[in-house]
Amino acid sequence: MVTQQENAMKVKFKEWDCNMEKRTYYNGRLALQLTDTEDGSPIATATVNIPEIDLNEGEVLIKDYSENEGMFATLEAAGIVKATRQVVASGHVTIPICRYTGDSFFYKSRN
User: Fold this and answer.
1) Beta partners for residue 16, in sequence order
2) Three-state helix/strand/coil letters over the chain
3) Structure confidence at residue 4 (pLDDT)
4) Calpha distance 68→42 (Å, rounded)
5) How far apart are the C-alpha atoms of 75 and 46, rounded to whole Å?
6) Are 61 and 46 within 8 A, CB to CB?
């Protein structure tokens, strides 16, 4: 679930109502962080940064394992990311490569 209020994207992840914030990793890649809407405390970082993996512009790696299990489904249902049907292996997990589409949500919500 996503709503638009005062230029903030809201998303429900597990039991938390969150703000989805765009950040940047040290290498310039997009990072997506969820913070609590009540007190701003961090809930989850939705992305992972693996510099040796080549990504196209606008693509992100979604952390959908461990404490972030269900993150991909949440963000895809909200229209924040779209599956590319590609994954990368990292250790014992596979990480989906997704296209970030959240900016189109912001654009549509303002019109």
Assistant:
1) 13
2) CEEEECCEEEEEECCEEEEEEEEECCCCCEEEEEEECCCCCEEEECEECCCCCCCCCCEEEECCCHHHCCHHHHHHHCCCEEEEEEEEEECCEEEEEEEECHHHHHHHHHC
3) 38
4) 13
5) 9
6) no
Q: What is the pTM of this model?
A: 0.85
Per DSSP, what are the bridge partners of residue 97? 61, 86
The half-sphere exposure of 95 on its side-chain side, counting CA atoms within 13 A, is: 20
Q: How many residues in the chain? A: 111
Q: What tokens were used for 81?
A: 């990311």
pLDDT tens track for 53-107:
999 999 999 999 999 999 999 999 999 999 999 999 999 999 999 999 977 654 4
Q: Say how many Å lie between the first and final Cα of the chain, rounded.
A: 19
